[in-house]
């Protein structure tokens, strides 16, 4: 989720300082505290005015009338997207600790994952979630597009295990005033079906994630968006299937956070982690919106999480790879009042290290 709010440099600095202080103290933040503890070079009255603007923009709010202000989910989102950089120092520290487990001939990848989970929990103070590498190598055998209604087609997919899946999709917009010739549509769908089968046959679902879009667009420019939707639908089963369990570490670490003082909230979260991992799996094994982005970690803040027990939490996750394909994921789950620059650095460094470890196993 992105937040489209325009802030000047002073407002950004005050938002950054407010969030940093709240992360450190878990107490609502007032203008006098910021003026005293941060080099903002402005008076408490100016800080108060800026905080009022940030509140009206939905980035801060007052839990009580007489209290200071705390960050909203939107405030944290701007903080993550615009105001911080991951901690390289902590990332290197995680790599150093993990490297000790790659030495020797008795290397065991699953044991490394368990150790990595414990190291991450200790360094971050939050819950660590790590999926075992997926071993499923389902490959596409045949694809067929069939017209089912004007402007709607069914995509039929057959895998190498002869499993069949069907998905109904919208074709590019059809004009009601000038309906297309059905025979022409059927002919185009057959050409598209042949094209997709020839390009995708034999590929695993994981490979579709890194498929070169431009290669598809060149021959069928008018169907570019439709073809992208086809590939998105094809990769969806990979993201939502529960092929492996999730290793959970650091629950005791999280319970020390003041946000989890209520027993009912803790029970709901523990039930999700222990009994409903199939709901959690597609959230942790999630690719970044932009595969070419320098920041590989995916950050879901508070209400951005669709599962109710997680809506007071932030999930930071990144996939690790084998042969350039995502096969597993590393995540940190903690309160929205999280040290994001540390969490992102830890998750990305660990994902990179697990990718390197898998290359040594192969």
Automatic annotation (TrEMBL):
InterPro entries (UniProt xref): GAF-like_dom_sf, HrcA, HrcA_C, WH-like_DNA-bd_sf, WH_DNA-bd_sf, WHTH_transcript_rep_HrcA_IDD
One annotated GO biological process: negative regulation of DNA-templated transcription
Stretches assigned to the Heat-inducible transcription repressor HrcA C-terminal domain: 110-344
Keywords attached to this entry: Repressor, Stress response, Transcription, Transcription regulation
Classification via SUPFAM superfamilies: GAF domain-like (SSF55781), Winged helix' DNA-binding domain (SSF46785)
Any Pfam family hit: HrcA
Gene Ontology MF terms in the entry: DNA binding
Annotated HAMAP family: HrcA (MF_00081)
Family: Belongs to the HrcA family.
Function field: Negative regulator of class I heat shock genes (grpE-dnaK-dnaJ and groELS operons). Prevents heat-shock induction of these operons.
Name of the protein this chain belongs to: Heat-inducible transcription repressor HrcA
Organism for this UniProt entry: Coleofasciculus chthonoplastes PCC 7420
Record gene name: hrcA
């Amino acid at each position: 989720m992105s937040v489209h709010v325009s802030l000047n440099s002073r407002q950004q600095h005050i938002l950054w300082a407010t969030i940093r202080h709240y992360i450190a103290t878990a107490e609502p933040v007032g203008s006098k505290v910021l003026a005293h503890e941060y080099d903002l070079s402005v008076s408490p009255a100016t800080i108060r005015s800026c905080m009022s603007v940030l509140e009206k923009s939905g980035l801060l709010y007052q839990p009580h009338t007489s209290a200071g202000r705390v960050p909203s989910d939107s405030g944290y989102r701007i903080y993550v997207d615009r105001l911080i950089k991951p901690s390289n120092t902590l990332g290197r520290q995680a790599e150093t600790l993990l490297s000790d487990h790659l030495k020797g001939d008795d290397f065991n990848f699953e044991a490394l994952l368990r150790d990595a989970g414990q190291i991450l929990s200790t360094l971050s103070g939050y819950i660590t979630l790590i999926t075992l590498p997926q071993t499923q190598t389902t490959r596409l055998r045949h694809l067929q597009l069939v017209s089912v209604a004007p402007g709607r087609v069914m995509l039929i997919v057959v895998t190498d295990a002869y499993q069949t899946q069907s998905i109904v999709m919208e074709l590019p917009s059809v004009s009601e005033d000038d309906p297309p010739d059905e025979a022409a549509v059927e002919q185009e769908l057959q050409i598209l079906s042949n094209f997709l089968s020839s390009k995708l046959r034999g590929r695993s679902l994981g490979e579709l994630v890194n498929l070169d879009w431009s290669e598809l667009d060149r021959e069928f420019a008018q169907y570019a968006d439709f073809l992208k939707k086809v590939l998105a639908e094809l990769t969806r089963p990979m993201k939502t299937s529960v092929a492996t369990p999730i290793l959970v570490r650091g629950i005791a670490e999280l319970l020390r956070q003041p946000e989890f003082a209520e027993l009912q909230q803790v029970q709901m979260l523990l039930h999700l982690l222990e009994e409903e991992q199939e709901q959690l799996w597609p959230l942790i094994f999630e690719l970044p919106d932009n595969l070419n982005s320098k920041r590989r970690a995916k950050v879901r803040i508070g209400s951005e999480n669709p599962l109710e027990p997680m809506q007071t939490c932030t999930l930071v996750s990144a996939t690790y790879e084998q042969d350039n394909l995502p096969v597993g994921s590393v995540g940190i789950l903690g309160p929205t009042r999280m040290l994001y620059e540390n969490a992102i650095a830890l998750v990305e460094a660990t994902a990179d290290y697990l990718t390197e470890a898998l290359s040594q196993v192969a």
